[in-house]
Write a structure and sequence with these properties.
- By secondary structure, the chain is mainly alpha-helical.
- The protein has one domain: Ferritin, core subunit, four-helix bundle (Ferritin).
- The protein has helices at about 15-25, 25-50, 55-80, 95-100, 105-135, 135-140, 140-145, 150-170, 170-190.
- The longest helix is centred in the middle third of the chain and has 28 residues, at about 105-135.
């Protein structure tokens, strides 16, 4: 297995067994990812509203939201093409747990967004590694489709981190990011494994 280089220095790794659990129900996995992409687009638009005084930030986040909506559309089309149904949103307990800890306003919102994107990137990478171990999965069109999104997640994480540094200063943002990475490690360890990205 190759080494994963996360866009952020995540403090804990997801066990490989998570990928086995996630791959067991691809319809649920893609449905969950569709809901995540929709929420990610809304997050980007909401943060753009709060960064209206930074012209380049608004444009950057508008482009990011457009990418997330494109992914949402593509996942919906993928579900239909593979003969599956968009399952109900079961809620993202991981993201909810992180947001409950937020206390620093906009800085925390930017850093939470960065961390969620980084964790998504790591999880998609794990699916890719699992597919190499299971040849029948490696050629599954639904999995190839999902893995196209991995590199976008990494880029989005870096955008949110950079905006946090520009708005609040590199030192302040890094100190708070260090705190968040510890909290995220605690949170992710408490989450049950299921056929979902988080």
């Amino acid at each position: 297995m190759t080494t994963f280089m996360p866009p952020l220095a995540l403090r804990t790794q997801t066990p490989v067994a998570w990928a086995e659990a996630a791959l067991a129900d691809p319809e649920a996995l893609l449905s969950d990812h569709a809901h995540c992409e929709k929420k990610a687009a809304l997050t980007a638009l909401n943060l753009a509203r709060h960064l209206g005084d930074m012209a380049h930030a608004s444009g950057l986040l508008a482009k990011l939201a457009d990418e997330e909506l494109d992914h949402y559309r593509r996942v919906l089309e993928g579900l239909q093409g593979f003969g599956w149904t968009l399952l109900p949103d079961r809620g993202n307990h991981y993201a909810q747990a992180l947001h409950r800890l937020a206390s620093k306003g906009l800085l925390d919102q930017l850093l939470i967004a960065a961390i969620i994107e980084a964790r998504s990137c790591e999880r998609l990478w794990l699916l890719e590694q699992a597919a190499q171990v299971h040849p029948t999965l490696g050629c599954a069109p639904w999995l190839a489709f999902l893995l196209e999104l991995e590199h976008c997640e990494a880029g989005h994480a870096q955008i949110y981190r950079r905006l946090a540094e520009e708005r609040h200063g590199r030192e302040v943002a890094q100190q708070r990011l260090d705190w968040w990475l510890d909290r995220e490690a605690e949170t992710i360890r408490d989450q049950p494994w299921k056929s979902a990205v988080h």
